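tool=predict chain=A
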Amino acid sequence: MSSYQQRWLALVAVSGFLVVALGAFAAHGLKPFLDERAQEWFKLATTYQMWHTLALLGLATTWIEKNKGLRLAAWSWLAGTLLFSGSLYLMAITGDTRLAIITPLGGVALLFGWLSLFFGAFRRRAS
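tool=predict ok
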């Protein structure tokens, strides 16, 4: 395994740890303090973070290092998760709905990552 893959696996491990910890914290520690809307935001954030963490895990164990499309997908998913899930987490905890302007930017980054994966799947040569 290359050091590049090791770094991505470490990021995946951090994201996986955080999504489980944040989900448990919301379910047990924050639930009495969050209204129904905030709980939905938190649930959506953890759902998207977990799915994209698993997707990153898959990429990190492939030939990501030699495929520009896969690298772009990984970076897009990482940025998208931070923006999308991060903004939802912050909105849920703070109640500041001005952060909602960031959420769609994260969604676009997540979508871009999936398109990058699609096109990266057809790249045969290292870039």
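Residues 3-30 form the longest helix (28 residues). Helices lie at 3-30, 36-60, 68-94, 103-120.
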